[in-house]
Every structure is written in structure tokens, then in C-alpha cells.
Amino acid sequence: MVKVPDTATPFFEYAPAPESRSIVDIKPSYGLFVDGEFVDGHGRSFKTISPSTEEVLAEVAEADEADVDLAVKAARRAYTRVWSRMPGSERAKYLFRIARIIQERGRELAVLESIDNGKPIKESRDVDVPTVAAHFFYYAGWADKLDHAGLGADPRPHGVAGQVIPWNFPLLMLAWKVAPALAAGNTVVLKPAETTPLTALLFAEICQQADLPPGVVNIVTGAGATGQAIVAHPDVDKVAFTGSTEVGKAIARTVAGTRKKVTLELGGKAANIVFDDAPVDQAVEGIVNGIFFNQGHVCCAGSRLLVQENVADEVLERLKRRMSTLRMGDPLDKNTDIGAINSGEQLKRIRELSEVGDAEGAERWEVACDLPTKGFWFPPTIFTGVSQAHRIAREEIFGPVLSVLTFRTPHEAVEKANNTPYGLSAGVWSDKGSRILWMANHLRAGVVWANTFNKFDPTSPFGGYKESGYGREGGLPGLAAYLKGADA
Ligand code: TAP
User: Would you state the torsion angle of the CA atoms of residues 258, 263, 267, 268, taken in this order, to the nearest 10 degrees?
Assistant: First the structure.
């Protein structure tokens, strides 16, 4: 066994480096954004809290069916009278303007995202917000070139798009949905997740600042019933959903037999596969990024590590050493690697599935650290001695928990990697290009990363097979999904 020097003890203590909250102006209460204005809903309201402190941040309107109906009517009016008639070059100007404002207000968006979601500021600042702006820039570029995109002779928008998104990348999921929809000439009614509505509401302000015509973007906040009202509304032409497989199946049942088009981006249980010829330190960074990025709240997280048996001990030892250097705590501290779990409910689920792992006989190892007393926290954790039948190897934990399995041959790696109801992503670590290509051909996953993990780009289509959903977001396929006839 390779001896790895013990460097888990830090050489020096980091001083706190908190990002200032003063740049954000969180209002005590928020209405719904309908027809270009913030309006009171007919329904009740709910509180959004900071998952790192449990502090109540704001009271947010909960849209009922009547509110959703008003939003869909506003979107229909804007579609018929303005947006579908506007030349693509004019729509592009609005999208470019929105992209530039996102860049200008990037720090504000990043701080607000970290406060409401619990993710570290270095992720919201360096990954989420720049990728959000990049999506708007990318699709702005397509708005006046639809006739030349190879998507048919006269591609036409669907009309009103109803969009429902989850809490793990609130602003980024909004961008994946809103930017291609508007570029293609649709108008939208979007519901952010109940626990993370604030950046979508700040985005609504950005739409006002960009002078976007009223009704082109409508944001209705609420819980599952609000999402259900959007999906079931008879005047919604296209449904785009990102979230759990369970809710995705319910949505597929709701739209079955209607003329609605639908794309579903659902869960995953990705294999991150490390061969014995992989550069070990790079692979360890990739494993850490694969499962601990965004607290493991990532649909495409590399939550199953498949490591070749003859290097398993070395990889695990180095992985544990690297994990011991991860810094967990205040999401607004620029040194923080791991932030808070998004909600008490999600924390409960992570704890329950981890206890199932213990009960099934897997061996738990977690980073020894003091967890803050307030808020929702779970330490980075790995389970070894995991078999394919274990629930922690089959079910999405959606938290910082890695299940480790081993393999001997490439064929065994492929069999184990594909032995899942999901098919969203996979990672391969090897020095041999031919092996990487062979693996990519045999892995049943929408995205396969080679010697890297969790890399996102607006030009690159993203989506799954099997219970990970259908349709693609990003790139030209992501645009085609919002155009009649082009998504077939
Ligand atoms: P869900 O519980 O499915 O929620 C997703 C969204 O749907 C939320 O806005 C939710 O509202 C809403 N919703 C709940 N019930 C609904 C219903 N019956 N009809 C319509 N909308 C409904 O998922 P989540 O817990 O937020 O997110 C985690 C899941 O999302 C994971 O499984 C993850 O893998 C998946 N995910 C997938 C991707 C891609 S690209 N494939 C990306 C990110 C996340 P409330 O939350 O407000 O109640």
C-alpha cells in the first residue's frame, strides 16, 4: 500500500473572509411578478429562510390557480401582441441587455444566491452567475439566426412556456430555461422552488431594468401546487421541468394526451470511474468536485465512485486526506468549500439514507469537524464496502455522500456504471484516450466527462436517458426544444 504523508493537520488557520451582505437589499415581503409588475397574490404567503442560520429572510407570495391563470394570460398577450411579432434581432437586444445587467449585478446575485440557498460564495460567484450570463449571451446570439440553425425552414415558437425549477442552482436553472425560450420567441411563466425564490425575484427586477416588454417573463412563487397549476394550465403550450424523477413522472402523466410539448430534466446517480492509469491527484480533485461541489446537491453529481481494485487503497487514502482539508461553514466566507444543506427536509433525507447505508453494512467515514449549531449541515462523507444492491448505491441521496465500489476490468466498470435506473452523467479517469472513447461509447449517460467532472457550458447539450428524463437543455438541442417541429 502506498504511504501518503499526513497533511490533514493544517499548517495555519484561515482568518474569516466574509463577503459583505450590504450589497443585497432583501425586502420584508415579495409579490408575484406578472405582466411586468410586482402584484399581490390571491393566496397565502410563505417564508424563505437562510439554510445556514435559519434566519427568516422574507415573506413570499404563494400563487394559487387564479394567480397562475393571470400570469399565463399575461404571457399569452405578450406572445401574441409583441414577442412573437418582434424580429429576432430585436429580441436579441433584450437578451444581450439582460446578460450585461447580470454581469453588472453579478456580486449582488451571487451574495443573494448564497444567502437563500446556502451554497459557498466562491461557487455562486465563480460558477453559477458567470454561467447564467453566458447562457443569456449564447442564446441572444441565436435569436436572429433561427432560420440558419438547421432547425427547419421557418422555425416557429410554441407560444407560452410553463417552467418549473428546483432549488439546487436556482438562478442557473432559470437561465437554462428562460434564455432559450425567449430567444426562440416564446414567453414564459416560471416557478422557482419554494426554498429559493429570491434570485428569481431579483431576476424579475432585472427584466424591468432591461425594459423587457410586460408579460414576456412572469415569475410566480409557491410550492408544488403552484407548479402543478402551471403544468396543468390549458393555455400552456410547452412544459419544461427540472426536479425529482417522482415529480417528473407526475408531470408526464398530467400532460399525457394533451398537445403540450414537454422536456424533463430529472435525477441521477452518476458513476465516476477511476482506472489504475489515471493521474491519482487529479482524479482525487475530480472525485471531490464530483460529489462535494454544491454540497452534492447536483443532479449529475458523481455520487458512485467506481475505482479499479488495484489502486483503490491509494485513491481512498488520498481522498480522505484531501477531504480533511475541505472547509465547511459560512456560505458567505470566501474560504468556504462546503456550505449548508438547503433545507431541514433535505437534511433529514440525507441522514435517513446514510443510516440505511450503516444498516446495510457499508462502512461510513466522515470528516471530523465541528458543525455550526444553527442551520442545516452534513459533513462530507464516504461509504466503503458498498455493493450494487445497497440503497445508497441505487438511490439519489442529493447530498455530500459518496458510495465507493470497485471493479477489475473495463467491462465490469461499464456494467456497474450502467446498472442504475438513471442515465444523466458519468466520469472517466484514465491516461488512455482509446479507453476513454470506448467507455464513452458504452456508458448509457447523457454526458460523459473525461478526466474532469461537473463542467458546464451553454453550447453543450445536457440531459438524460432512462429515469433521468427526456429532452436536452443547452446548445442547439436546447433551442430546438422551444421551436415547433425542431425538437422531434
Ligand atoms: P422536486 O421536489 O421535484 O421539485 C422541483 C420543482 O417542482 C420545485 O419547484 C417544486 O416545488 C416543484 N413541484 C413539486 N411538486 C410538483 C408537482 N406536483 N407539479 C409541478 N411542480 C411540482 O425536486 P427538488 O427536490 O426541488 O430538486 C431535487 C431534484 O432535482 C433531484 O432529484 C435532482 O436530481 C433534480 N435535478 C435535476 C437536474 C437536471 S438538469 N436533470 C438539475 C437539478 C436538479 P417546491 O420545491 O417549491 O415545492
Answer: 130
* Total length of the chain: 488
**Pocket-testing residue among 116, 244, 473, ligand 1, by greatest number of atoms within 8 A of Cβ:** 244
* Domain extent for 395: 271-450
Q: Using the Cα atoms of residue 313, residue 292, residue 381 and residue 423 in order, give the sign of their dihedral.
A: negative
Q: Is 231 in the pocket of ligand 1 (CB under 6 A)?
A: yes
User: Is the four-CA dihedral 129, 134, 137, 143 of positive or negative sign?
Assistant: negative
The per-residue pLDDT for range 229-273, each reduced to its tens digit, is 999 999 999 999 999 999 999 999 999 999 999 999 999 999 999
Tell me which DSSP letter residue 324 carries.
Answer: T
Nearest atom (ligand 1) to Cα of 267: 34
Q: Do 380 and 410 reside in the same domain of the chain?
A: yes
Is residue 199 within 8 Å of 172, Cβ to Cβ?
no
Q: Are 278 and 150 in the same domain?
A: no
pTM above 0.85, yes or no: yes
Say which DSSP state 15 is in: P
